[in-house]
């Protein structure tokens, strides 16, 4: 661990906590709530002016039934995947994939589109109702050598002492880096998302649309996620190493708006919000707990690398983080149970998703590979269902092997 900050630099908060949770996204609020339910004194710090603001999200979540198929080993999903009606803007029934404007395949997969600001607020309120204290406009700037964090709150420096720190501070987590946890520096392990909330466009409320095409989403995909009759989140994801020189991510979104098969439906639209952010797509970190620190959610690489969806794993792992913190501090066990538990409940899904993302990289990065896949019938409804549900069965393993051989000899 690095300890560059001297204690006298910060004003010491009189209160001492069992746990300080850094970041009030889904992972932070969920872990804070569960830790408080376990009898711990918890402080949740958020640098935001308001929880959930700014949101950077397509706002799509699988329904409870789909989560049961996606993460069959995760416990008590019904306690996590039942957002209140007032957070839900739309319910979708299908995902439509489009490959290079040439091939379109639709698969049944149900989801809810939530208002992320309301949803994050709801999760933080649930935490507060369990006794979690919340400190807004408070940024963690380092870990304290004796336990806790050094933070800045409206111009003053605070030493917030605690027995444990939960880093739920999102992609490229400061807490993970300061704790010496193995944060990836490989640019291929990060996707950047850039999205407009658009109005006055033609959308089908039942369909989430995903467009795979290097011209507007190199290394990832572009999307349309319907929020209402004529409103949707329209965005693109890219991975920087795949970008063409001289183009920035706004250019890619503009390409999508102007030159994709969806253009005619989007052309009249106006953007009412811009949302952008980084998404870890390199799979979970090899180690997510060290000393008096554990990390969770995007901070730990708990996202589905295939689609960049991070809210479901943040909720599942957030609950495990809170419970492990309570067990560790109340009963004195090691934090190893945290690592072991999230791997047991969702580790396989995240690892499969990473393998599938690597397969997709090979396919989408080359027209030859795409035509090989088309000839062999690898891109069909059955395969895409496996992709969505992160299933690496025998058939997928054969395709994976074939793609690896293709890569070696091309
Ligand atoms: C454009 C885009 C679209 C996306 N669409 C979807 C989608 O449709 N569905 C889906 O499931 N996922 C989606 N994601 C991913 C999803 O948003 C994240 O995976 C999810 O928010 C992770 O939750 P989290 O709690 O780990 O982190 P976050 O939600 O990122 O929360 C981290 C919080 O920590 C705060 N913080 C950071 N540093 C500090 C600090 N030093 N001190 C105090 N606070 C700090 C941040 O301000 C933030 O509030 C999308 C991401 C992007 C960028």
Outline the structure in words.
- This protein has 410 residues and is α/β, with parallel strands linked by helices.
- The protein has 3 domains: 184 residues, 3-Layer(bba) Sandwich (FAD/NAD(P)-binding domain); 133 residues, D-Amino Acid Oxidase, Chain A, domain 2 (2-Layer Sandwich); 44 residues.
- The strands form 2 sheets. Strands 1, 2, 3, 7, 8, 9, 10, 16 and 17 form a 9-stranded mixed beta sheet that branches. Strands 4-6-5-12-13-14-11-15 form an 8-stranded mixed beta sheet.
- A hairpin with a 4-residue loop joins strand 13 and strand 14.
- The termini are far apart.
- The N terminus is likely disordered.
Rg estimate, integer Å: 21 Å
Distance between the termini: 44 Å
Instruction: Please give the number of β-strands.
Output: 17
Estimated share of beta-strand residues = 25-35%
- Largest sheet descriptor: 9 strands, mixed
The CATH architecture name of the largest domain reads 3-Layer(bba) Sandwich
